[in-house]
Design a protein that fits this description.
Layout lengths: L1 H12 L11 E9 L2 E5 L5 H14 L3 E5 L6 H12 L7 E3 L4 H10 L3 E7 L2 H12 L4 E5 L4 E5 L5 H13 L9 E7 L3 H13 L19 H16 L3 E4 L15 E4 L6 H4 L6 E7 L2 H9 L3 E2 L1 E5 L3 H10 L4 E4 L14 E2 L2 E2 L4 H7 L1 E9 L17
Parallel strand pairs: 2-3, 2-5, 3-4, 5-6, 7-8, 7-13, 8-11, 10-11, 13-14
Antiparallel strand pairs: 1-17, 6-16, 9-10, 12-15
Helix pairs in contact: 1-2, 6-7
Length: 386
C-alpha cells in the first residue's frame, strides 16, 4: 500500500511550472499521461516490483498492460483482480501472461505502447530497449547488479557480519542488489570472514511456510544448476569455498546452501558476473583508494554499501562509487520516495520518487501572449529573421 499511497499523494499535490519567458508572454508547463504503457516484471519480488511500476503509471493517468514472468505469474494476476474489485475501470490495468519471447516481444513491439518499464537481466534488457526504440517508446530499465559491500577497519565486526548476511542471503540472494562482493579491509578480513562463515552455517533452509525457515529455494532447477556451475568454475580457477557450494543434501527441492568464497581475483567470473543466488565472493583491500577501485571494477552499478563509523569517509567514498543506490551501514532498504535504479550495465531511468512519476508523463508547454500591441511580421521593415 505504501507505493499506492505515495503516488496517490503525488497525483494530488503535483504542480506545473511557469518558467520565465521574454516579452509579453506567460509560459505554463504541465505534464500529461503518455497513454498506454507496458510493464514487464520478473519472478523475484513479483508483488513489490509490480506495484513499484503500476502505482506511478496509474497515478498520472496511463492505461497499463503488464506482462509478469512466466515463472511467477499468479501474484500479478491476483493483483489485477484485487484492483478491479477495488473499482479500477475495466481496461485500465490489463495482464498478459506468457513467455517472454512471445507475449513479452509482442508487447514491446506494439506501436500503441508509449513506454516500457522492464526489470530483468541485462542481456534481455538490451533487446527490450532496442525493440522499444523501434517505436520511439521511452524505457526504464532496472537490470542486473553485482553490489559491493565495502567494509573499513573501524567497524564493529559482529554488526557487519549480521548486516552482510542480510545483504547477501535475503531471498536466497535472488535480488538485483544482493551484496555479492564483500570487500574488506585487510586488517579485519580473516576475523570477519570467519565470523560470517559461522553465521551463514546457522541459516535454516526450508519451507517458506514454516515460521522457523530463514532461507527458501532457488526459483528453478536450471537456475540452481547455473549457480552451481559458476561456483564450480570459481573453485577450478583457484577460489576457496569456505562454506556452502552445493545443493542442500537433506532437502527436497531447489535448495542451494548459502556460499562464501575467498581467494578470488578481481577478474574472476564469480566476481565480475551476476550469480543471482546465495553466493558472496570476499576479498580484501589495503586502503581507501584500492577499496574504491575494487568496488568500481564491475560492469554493473546498481547498489553498493559502505560500512564505516567515519562520516567524512562515508560521504567521500559514496561520492566516488559508481552506483545508483548507496547504503551506509545497511543494505536493501527501499522506500517509495527514494529513487531506485542503476548506472552502467545496471540500466537507465529510475523507479520510485518524483523521477518515476515524471517518467510516465510527457511535457506540454503552453505560451500565451497578453500584449496589447498589434503585430504583423511582414510589414515591419525593421524585423529580420535570425
Amino acid at each position: 500500500m505504501e507505493w499506492f499511497e505515495y503516488f496517490a499523494a503525488l497525483a494530488r499535490t503535483s504542480e506545473g511550472t511557469v518558467p520565465p519567458f521574454s516579452g509579453s508572454y506567460v509560459n505554463y508547463v504541465h505534464r500529461l499521461p503518455l497513454g498506454t504503457v507496458g510493464l514487464i516484471t520478473p519472478w523475484n519480488h513479483p508483488l513489490l516490483i509490480a506495484v513499484k511500476k503500476l502505482a506511478p503509471a496509474l497515478a498520472v493517468g496511463n492505461s497499463v498492460v503488464m506482462k509478469p514472468s512466466e515463472l511467477a505469474p499468479l501474484t500479478v494476476l491476483q493483483l489485477a483482480e484485487l484492483c478491479h474489485e477495488a473499482g479500477l475501470p475495466s481496461g485500465v490495468f490489463n495482464c498478459v501472461s506468457g513467455l517472454g519471447n512471445v507475449a513479452g516481444q509482442a508487447l514491446v513491439e506494439h506501436p500503441v505502447i508509449k513506454k516500457i518499464d522492464f526489470t530483468g537481466g541485462t542481456t534481455t534488457g538490451r533487446r527490450v530497449a532496442a525493440a522499444a526504440g523501434g517505436n520511439l517508446a521511452s524505457t526504464t530499465m532496472e537490470l542486473g547488479g553485482k553490489a559491493p559491500i565495502v567494509v573499513f577497519d573501524d567497524v564493529d565486526v559482529d554488526e557487519v557480519v549480521n548486516g552482510a548476511a542480510f545483504a547477501c542471503f535475503i531471498a536466497s540472494g535472488q535480488t538485483c542488489v544482493t551484496g555479492a562482493r564483500l570487500i574488506v579491509h585487510e586488517r579485519i578480513f580473516e576475523e570477519l570472514v570467519d565470523k560470517l562463515v559461522t553465521k551463514v552455517r546457522s541459516i535454516r533452509l526450508g519451507d517458506p511456510l514454516n515460521d522457523r525457515t530463514q532461507m527458501g529455494t532457488i526459483i528453478s532447477e536450471p537456475h540452481l544448476l547455473r549457480i552451481h556451475a559458476m561456483v564450480e568454475r570459481a573453485k577450478q580457477a583457484g577460489a576457496t569455498i569456505r562454506c556452502g557450494g552445493r545443493r542442500a543434501p537433506d532437502l527436497k527441492g531447489y535448495f542451494y546452501e548459502p556460499t562464501v568464497i575467498t581467494n578470488v581475483a578481481p577478474d574472476m567470473e564469480i566476481v565480475q558476473q551476476e550469480v543471482f543466488g546465495p553466493v558472496v565472493a570476499a576479498y580484501s583491500f589495503k586502503d581507501e583508494v584500492e577499496a574504491v577501485q575494487l568496488a568500481n571494477d564491475s560492469p554493473f552499478g546498481l547498489g553498493a554499501a559502505i560500512w564505516t563509523t567515519n562520516i567524512k569517509r562515508a560521504h567521500r567514498v559514496a561520492d566516488k562509487l559508481e552506483a545508483g543506490i548507496i547504503w551506509l551501514n545497511d543494505h536493501h532498504r527501499n522506500d517509495p520516495s527514494s529513487p531506485w535504479g542503476g548506472v552502467k550495465d545496471s540500466g537507465m531511468g529510475r523507479e520510485n520518487g518524483l523521477e518515476a512519476y515524471r517518467s510516465y508523463t510527457h511535457v506540454k508547454s503552453v505560451v500565451v501572449g497578453f500584449g496589447s500591441e498589434k503585430f504583423d511580421w511582414f510589414v515591419d521593415d525593421t524585423v529580420r529573421y535570425g
